[in-house]
Amino acid sequence: MGFYDAGWKKYRRLRTTYVLLWMGILPFLWILHLLGKVPNVKMTVGPLIFKYVLYALALAVAMIRLERFRCPRCGDFFAITRRYSLSVLASLLAPKCVHCGLEKFSDGEQESTASAAPAPTSS
Predict the structure, then answer these.
(1) How does residue 116 score in pLDDT terms, banded at 50, 70 and 90?
(2) Distance between CA atoms of 112 and 59, rounded to whole angstroms?
(3) 20 to 30 Å CA-CA from 16: which of 51, 60, 69, 89?
(4) What is the SS3 assignment for 56-118?
(5) What is the pLDDT of residues 41-100, one digit of tens each?
(6) Domain definitions of the chain by residue range
(7) Which residues are CB-contacts of 37 (< 8 A; sequence separation ≥ 6)?
(8) How confident is the model at residue 22 (pLDDT cuts 50, 70, 90)?
(9) 103 — phi, psi (to 5°)?
(10) What's the angle, vertex CA 17, arms to CA 16 and CA 22, rounded to 5?
(11) What is the pTM of this model?
């Protein structure tokens, strides 16, 4: 088990939540459209708008949490360099931390074994 497994598990959960919400937009809208056409179900504008807003808020929260994911090693934002630079795409595609260089999904064991190995001596 690596040093950063808990952090990467959190990242995977955030990424999966965001992607599933993003992919679910059209099915969600389609289901609401079908519910509006059912004769015995009364879907007024108020509940529909409430459901749209609730879904949009869930998507926005998932997006912000993914953007603000912190590097397991240095604790700074993993993919953004400025405080107000928001990009989910950068968070999804960044191969390593922009601050300390930790590769995505690295367990950190390579670092500890490299630092624990004695330096070669020249005789």
Answers:
(1) very low
(2) 38
(3) 51
(4) HHHHHHHHHHHHCCECCCCCCECCCCCCCCCCHHHHHHCCECCCCCCECCCCCHHHHHHHHCC
(5) 666 767 778 888 999 999 999 998 988 899 999 999 888 877 666 677 777 888 898 888
(6) 5-109
(7) none
(8) very high
(9) -70, 145
(10) 100
(11) 0.75
21: Cα separation from own chain's centroid? 11
**What is the C-alpha R_g of the chain?**
22
Mean pLDDT of the chain: 80
CB within 8 Å of 118: residues ≥ 6 apart: none
In angstroms, the CA 109 to CA 4 distance is 9
Q: Is 115 left (phi over 0), alpha (psi -120 to 50) or beta?
A: alpha
| 3-state secondary structure string across 15-46 | HHHHHHHHHCHHHHHHHHHHHHHCCCCCCCHH
Q: Cβ distance 74 to 100 under 8 Å?
A: yes
